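ugh ok so i messed up the first submission bc i forgot one of the chains. this is the corrected input, ALL of the components this time, i swear. 606 residues overall. if the numbers dont match what u have on ur side tell me asap before i send this to the collaborators (the ones from the other lab, u know who)
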Amino acid sequence: MAGLPENAAAAGEFDEVEGRSLWRDARDRLLRNRAAVGAMILLSVIALLAIFAPWLSPHPYDEIYWDRIQAPPDFANAHWFGTDGNGRDMFVRTLYGARVSLMVGILATGVSLLIGVTWGATAGFFGGRVDNAMMRFVDIMYSLPFMFFVILLMVIFGRNIWLIFIALGAVEWLTMARIVRGQTLSVKRREFIEAAHAAGVGSFTIIFRHIVPNVLGPVIVYMTLTIPQVILTESFLSFLGLGVQEPLTSWGVLISEGARVMETAPWMLAFPATFLALTLFCFNFLGDGLRDALDPKDR
Amino acid sequence: MHRYILGRLASAVPTLLIVVTVAFFMMRIAPGGPFDRERALPPEIEANVLKAYNLDKPLLQQYFDYVGNLLRGDFGPSLKFRDFSVNDLIFGGFGASFQIGSLALLLAVLCGVSMGTVAALRQNRRTDYAVMTFAMTGIAIPNFVMAPLLTLVLGVYLSLLPVAGWGGGAAANKILPVLALALPQIAYIARLTRGSMVEVLNSNFIRTARAKGLRERIVVVRHALRGALLPVLSYLGPATANIVTGSVVIESIFDIPGIGRYFVHGALNRDYPMVMGTVVFYAVLIILLNLVVDLLYAWLDPKVRLD
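and heres the new structure output, hopefully the right one now
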């Protein structure tokens, strides 16, 4: 009986060495990736700046200073990034642009995620004729020009910024659906799905409780690559004059205004362009890091 | 092979018909019309204008008329550019877009594939990081920033190249737009090539090729590259369609008489025949290019069978 406490102690030690889940492994691999960690830190900083924008500058984002039109950066008046062609502070406008651009990116990606994952998982799970019809639809959507859709959706919904998010998401889901379908096809033949069938679980419960969580890896990776894609699309629409409306702004609006006067007022282009490029850089690095972390055999 | 191509082309017909139908009705459901102005037209004049373009007929009738004309290769008149047919506009502008686009693609494939290959061969060394940083920059800087920057540096400060304009198709006028269009593509292709090249270089048949004493250059160019190009090829199908149909941004910045702008202007002005023309043109290109990609796939990868 003297051995019992020792055994208990040993058992205690064993408890500490828990089995590591796939997710925890992935997180450790991600945290070892310096580029990805740097990207996450920088993105958090940009996000915090965007959230606290109104309290970071003495200037409101739509205040017009008639005496300081297109003024270069100056610290005396707290115009750290200078002012724009209407005499508005560029620092606070760049941060407000960050709010819009980041929100567009995240919300539109959310919409594309919702549609794409549901569509792809359903097609892959049911297979056969359903799969054929659903993926044929995706092929047809693919062969319509992208601009056609976006502009059409924008004229239908007017210039409402929330609907722009949905419109962009409604265009970006196609690739997501293809990825999810491919993954679903390989998951649905596995034993645990068969077990769920045998236990009498309904189709939609199987899809959302058992299949979707198991195809999440590639989905997350593609998601981090969709966010910068959407931000770029939004800025492209703003360049065409279809984006958010004055006095609200986005990086795309600021950049297209800045590009027009880049010879005389380079600060109007430099600051928003740097923020946009940094953000896109970070999302791409994060996406690469996540891919390496979630799918180590790819490297 | 011939039967395969014919089969694919035959199956493209229903796809195209669906594309035409979807686009036609989606466009008509959208609010607004081609003749909406700040000041409304007097009703009699508006009725006459609508009648002149057959827009007063029932929608279904218009649809069947349109499909009928399409079968004869007639895209109809442009509602915005008076006196021009959509055929004239699209085929007239396609030359410029195609020249710029195909040169940019050629440049992108040559540079992208070689940069990706070099990066994969020097994996995790300085060259690799340099190439990948360059590629990331190409992706992170949107082309409406890159194009003015290139113009400013090469055109204005160094005065090496014309800043904008088509110059009747002079070679010097094409350099900047081609460069601006190619840079992001170089970046994507380099990343894709590097990724798949790394994978292929670790596979068994490359080890065999090296073991039997082939020179490194032959191993890389003849054995590895062939497999590594497959993902690049699938990317190039839709990318080619996008690029040769012109970029609105590049065409407006450099003032190029291409067709990129029609995609935007048509939809914005409800120029129905113009929108349909661009949609059909684009869809045909996508379908043809996907077919070419599949044929090239079978040629590059002996495991793929066409049937």
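quick check: The CA atoms of residues 14 and 284 of chain A lie 40 Å apart. that seems consistent at least. Chain A has a mean pLDDT of 80.
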